[in-house]
């Protein structure tokens, strides 16, 4: 996998499809931690939706797809 950096739908044209990444953080303040967790859950749904849309525009065929 090549990490092309964050964001940028323009990268799809160059064959750089999106990929999920993960990170782990500890937020000590409970209120802030809860707020961040809520945002991250909503953001994850949005990102998953975007990835499905981007998959429709990749310059590559899916495995097993006819030429």
Description of the structure:
The chain is mainly alpha-helical and 67 residues long. The chain has a domain at 28-57. Helix content is 39%, strand content 0%. The chain contains one helix and no strands. It has one helix at residues 30-55. The longest helix is centred in the middle third of the chain and has 26 residues, at 30-55. It is elongated, with a radius of gyration of 16 Å.
Report the sheet-strand fraction: under 5%
Number of β-strand runs: 0
Query: Secondary-structure element order, as H and E?
Result: H
Alpha-carbon distance between the two ends: 24 Å
Mean pLDDT: 81
Would you identify the regions where 5 or more consecutive residues have pLDDT less than 50?
A: none
Fraction in helix = 25-40%
For the sheet with most strands, the description reads: none
Radius of gyration: 16 Å
Structural class: mainly alpha
Number of helices: 1
Shape field:
elongated
Give the gist of this structure.
The chain has 67 residues and is mostly helical. It is built from one helix and no strands.
Describe the SSE topology:
Layout: H1 30-55
Give the key terms.
single chain; about 70 residues; mainly alpha; elongated
